[in-house]
Amino acid sequence: MIGTLALGLVLALALGMLAQRIKLSPLVGYLLAGILAAQPWWGLTDDPHVVMHEFASIGEVLLLFGVGLHFHFKDLLAVRKVAVPGSLMCMALWTGCGALVYHACVPGADWVAALIFGMCVCVSSTVVLTRVLEDSKLLHTPSGHTAVGWLVMEDIFTIVLLVLLPAVFIMPEGASKAVFCADDLWSALWGMVWKLALMVFCVAFLGKHVISRVLTFVARSNSNELFTLAVLTCALGVAVLSAEVFNASMVFGAFLSGMVVGQSKFASRAASDALPMRDAFAVLFFVSVGMGFDAPMLLEHWPLAVGTLALTLLIKPLSAYGVIRLLRRPGSLGVVVGTSLSQIGEFSFILAALAAGDRFGLLPREAVNVITGVAIITITLNVGLFRLVPSLIRKMDARGIGMPAADNSAVPEPTETKDRVIVVGYGPCGKIITKILNKYNIEVVVLEMNIDTVTHLASKGIPAMHGDARLHTILRMAGAEHAKAIIITAAGAPAAEISATARDVNPDIAVLAHTTYMRNARNMRKQGAQMVVSGEEEVALTLSSMLLRGLGATEEQIQKARAENREILTGTANSSLLNILN
After folding, report:
1. In this predicted model, what pLDDT tens digit does every residue of 196-223 receive, in sequence order?
2. 475-480 — which CB contacts under 8 Å span 24+ positions?
3. What is the pLDDT of residues 119-128, one digit of tens each?
């Protein structure tokens, strides 16, 4: 057993690092490590798949505990107008398409297996989606929030399925496959509802009166080891309780336990201390999935594999794009969400493994093998496909495809009596900049990605638009062709891309930007930006000024040193806004 575990971890580490080096998701490396570890040439006496499956079960529980830990309904509510209807429509469509693909490619297949297969392939990987969004700097953008909210709905859908399977399917004595208990369906569903409601109540009660107090008591010991152990005990304890007492899925119990801890004051510490252990066991989960993969079987059932691959790489992103456009959202959002969902991952494995296990026997082994093979292919391709998203959005923008209608009624026409300045972002910095410009009788148009902020500004009579400042269409609607300057106030905004687009629209426009790093500031100055403020530079100047003041320097000496240090850091002095506008 130890030899199998060590082999799986070594291969996962090596192939995971290789995948990371070639800009792929480490999940690809973990799955390939499982495929290699299952080969007979290692000479292991134990069945590697059986041994690793035991560790993978812990990985499943901790994986769902982590999902619950970071699950917040407020994240879903923020994008509910798109994520909720969009995900429900698409999951229904994808499930139906998956069922049709399975029924067409598997001779004699029953519709129950076909529908379960469709449900397995309609959900995407949490790990992959968050990773590609983070690498593309889109995780904390409106598009990223919508994709994450969409994924939250898929997670809820999967958890409901994990709970429903034991309630609506029973295994007759001596049978090899569970049957749908249609005669007693409503009573079974009602029993499941009250049992789960009781379970949620018990977990919430335990969380408030037991788990919280236990974690508080352990935290006072100032021992990281004991706190990590306490969190893992909560996760595994509630999971086992849900299975033994309430006959529910262990992963559902782990999800509830994660939600309880996530809503407590220990959420951040649990994430930093206990989740590394979750990640280690989650690696074993993916390695175990790879061990169950059979390449010759995948080739034998190539029609099903090709059909599933087409569903995942073509139908899922195209339909997601179509639904988002149907909901009257910009095409750029549809491209980001659709591309990020064009893969299948861990929840597909969990659901497929449960349906194909001895408890139900609803899916044949070849169907699970196809899901694993398609997951490996789509996860590998997803990172590469996502790199094409920015150029695709720019091409769509240039041709006016999928762009929002020109509803710029809140933006006045440029006048000859006032200079116009476009302010990108209305955070604390943008708010102050807008107030100052209005005071000096300069016309301001705010570009903001938060629709609630745009609505609030419109109610106060401040010209504001909802849109991505990287898009030519949005800048033209904001009047960039006649604007004197564009001020990028958000440090996290893609300032270089916004600057390039603004100069395409108006070559004479002045660019003033706020960036985080000095290297970005230097590059933008080389590209012609008139004024660039870097967070690193300003922090260095402020700290040096405070140090000089503490050492007794006069204000004149401090200002002189500040000017010299700025010259050293930036190589130039920033122009004044008054000179730029004149």
Report:
1. 677 777 777 777 778 878 888 888 888 8
2. 475/422, 475/447, 475/501, 475/502, 475/505, 476/505, 477/406, 477/408, 477/411, 478/408, 478/411, 478/422, 478/445, 478/447, 479/411, 479/413, 479/414, 479/420, 479/422, 479/445, 480/422, 480/505, 480/506, 480/509
3. 999 988 776 7
